[in-house]
Amino acid sequence: MGTTDTRGPTPGRSAVVLALRRYGLELLRLRRLALPALLLPAVGNIGIRYVAPLLIAKLAGQAADGNGLTLGPALPYVLGFGATLLLAEAVWRVGQHCLNRVDALGMEHLYVSGMDELLAKDAAFFHDNFAGSLTKRVLSFGKRFEDFVDTVTYRIVGSLVPLVFGAVVLWSYEPMLVAGLLVMIALTVVAATPLIRRRQMLVHDREAAIARVSGHVADALVNMETIRAFAAERREADEHRSRVADSRRLTLRSWDYGNLRVDTLIAPLSVLTNVLGLVVAIVFGGPGQGVEEVVVAFTYYSNATQIMFEFNQIYRRLESSMTEAAQFTELLLDPPTVLDPAEPEPLAARDTGVRFEAVTFAHAGAKPIFEKLELDVPAGARIGLVGRSGGGKTTLTRLLLRMSDIDGGRILIGGQDISRLRQSDLRSLIAYVPQDPAMFHRSLRDNIAFARPGATDEEIRAAAAAAHVTEFADQLPEGFGTLVGERGVKLSGGQRQRVALARAVLRDAPILLLDEATSALDSESELLVQDALWRLMDGRTALVVAHRLSTVAGMDRLVVLDRGSVVEEGSHKELLAANGAYAKLWQHQSGGFLGESSEPALGRPAPGAGPGGPPGPAGPTPDPALDQAPDQDANPDPDPAPDQDPSPDPDQAPETSSHVRTGTGAT
Q1: Which string of b and e fits 583-621 if b means at least 16 CB within 10 Å?
Q2: Comparing 61-70, 484-493, 621-630, which segment has the lowest mean pLDDT?
């Protein structure tokens, strides 16, 4: 199962810097809350860790004077001690109140902005990344903001600001106490930094392993029916166990490195710092300040060495937060290539005609699919795109939707270059039914209304009726309110296609793209949908991709694509008469018996297809056994039946006839 591996290089410095910048911008955006959230806990720590012990040191100094210690002289210190702790706690609570809001508002904004970043990505991006891994990354990007801010507040600002206060107090007693403390802190940082950097790589390996576990779990859950169909439960469980074991191994390696390498270096330095503080306090203590100075030195040095000892833990928390956040920001280093223009043109197409002018396109790192492709689709024309698999039919529809940008040439709608339009404006012109209709884990009503969210229930039901969705929807437990399951698993393939067609009806767009829109329907269901589709295409520009030629034989014009080139164009009857690539495909799909009835599934009967069907938009559907994919040879003999006259009958020419064209030149 190595194909689901998402192992990648360690996020570079730029990804970590970008994550820090994003988090810093959040703090700046919330500065009115962030400033008290960062500083007030530090002020509270000053009271608890430095002011209160200083009062105790004063009391100890008085007791050491030899006059003893009575309540009267000690009362101000006792009251001051209690008031300091109460005030520190109050300041802490206010700071915590602000911090809670910084965390919550920041995470909310990062969750939203992270999703916005993913929505702006190219379609190809999602082909290269697992949904489970992306889900973990984008959610962790928001969640880790809380860890980052809490660590900065409690462990960094909450320790360094009080440490500065403590250094000022120590300086008032003996400057050497400050010098010794700073030297030991600097020595600890210099000695530990190389080890911590090494550990950063181990932490990334750990996070990448966790992402691989998440990706595999999501991949397995989405394809659970396939796993069961191939009795692969044990195999997938073993793969999951292997990935979890790899995650455990890398996690322990990063933890052990911190414990056995980093902490074992810092611990002796912390002890040495405490000892040094006592020695300096004893040696340099002034007259009458011996006990007080020793207590202050011991307490303040202990607080400082706690920071030194926690240096690894602080870095570890920041490292974990930033490494995981960088797993997401790394995805942002390669910006999307399909972008709205800086100064988009307003949507002002004169009509809905589509033109491909000298279009060249290739997927990244692959050979070109189209080179100088020329294709003209007049407004209101119904065009069938046919040909063998891999010819570029679906790619053509995706380029019209601008899922990818072309490498050369232009694509025009009504004379406007689609690259000069906002993507939302472009796609508002198009209703698209893909080969594999995508369903959300939402209600049936929501899935249909996705095409037009403001549609009324009456409009949704009318669209469903036109696509014959109501025939099965009313039988569902909650009717149109029934959840269809992830990717629509509760619906059959044919039912999903009907829902997708209902979306197209509800969309009511002037351009219609149908990519194998009825391929999952049985003959009876297809017959029910034919009339609705024909009415839907009426008055619209339609591009219909089909492998079953009978579904497009009644189109105004057929375009035969092969290896990214237009090899033939014309009506069904004209292409049969030309006896070229299309005629051979038709022979293969009809078993070579062209004299038998072969009515188109969409539109009027195919001219020249022989007698046997009443004219009109919904002629009888051909025998499914004869409707094979064009790559399958149902009859190895490419020659037409001897008793079939392939010549065109001018009395049966379609309303929008086109001359037959072969080759790859301009239309």
Answers
A1: bebbbbbbbbbbbbbbbbbbbbbbbbbbeebeeebbbbb
A2: 621-630
What does the alpha-carbon distance between residue 502 and residue 467 come to, in Å, rounded to a whole number? 5
pLDDT in tens, 266-296: 888 888 888 888 788 777 765 555 677 888 8
Q: Which residues contact 480 (CB under 8 A, 6 or more apart)?
A: 443, 444, 445, 448, 460, 461, 464, 473
**Rounded distance, CA 383 to CA 388, Å?**
17
Distance CA 219, CA 134 (A): 12
Residue 349 CA to residue 352 CA, distance in Å, equals: 7
Of the candidates 662, 660, 638, the one whose C-alpha atom is nearest the C-alpha of residue 574 is 660
Closest CA to 395 of 425, 420, 367: 367
Query: Using CA atoms, how far apart are residues 303 and 163, in angstroms rounded to an integer?
Result: 8
Q: Cα-atom radius of gyration of the chain, to the nearest Å?
A: 37
pLDDT band at 109 (very low <50, low <70, confident <90, very high): very high
Which tokens go with 60?
A: 């100890």
- Contacts of residue 552, defined as CB under 8 A and 6 or more positions apart, other chains included, come to 384, 385, 386, 544, 546, 558, 600, 602
- CA-nearest of 400, 363, 322 to 10 is 322
**Residue type at position 381:** A
Helices then strands, counting H and E runs in the chain, come out as 22, 11
State the pLDDT at residue 5. 45
Q: Please choose, from the candidates 366, 439, 369, the residue with its C-alpha nearest in 3D space to the C-alpha of residue 398.
A: 369
Q: How far is CA 650 from CA 196, 573, 587, 598, in A?
A: 83, 10, 22, 19
User: 255 with 239: CB under 8 angstroms?
Assistant: no
Two tokens at 88? 């520190």
pTM to 2 decimal places: 0.62
Asked if 655 and 571 touch (Cβ cutoff 8 Å), the reply is: no
- Beta-sheet pairing, 370-377 with 354-361: antiparallel
* Rounded Cα distance, 394 and 390, in Å: 9
Of the pLDDT bands very low, low, confident and very high (cuts 50, 70, 90), residue 68 is low
Q: How far apart are CA 318 and CA 144, in angstroms?
A: 9
Mean pLDDT of the chain: 79
Q: Are 454 and 483 in contact (CB under 8 A)?
A: no
Q: Which amino acid is at 414?
A: G
Angle between helices 493-507 and 457-466 (to 10 degrees): 120
Please tell me what DSSP assigns to residue 562: E
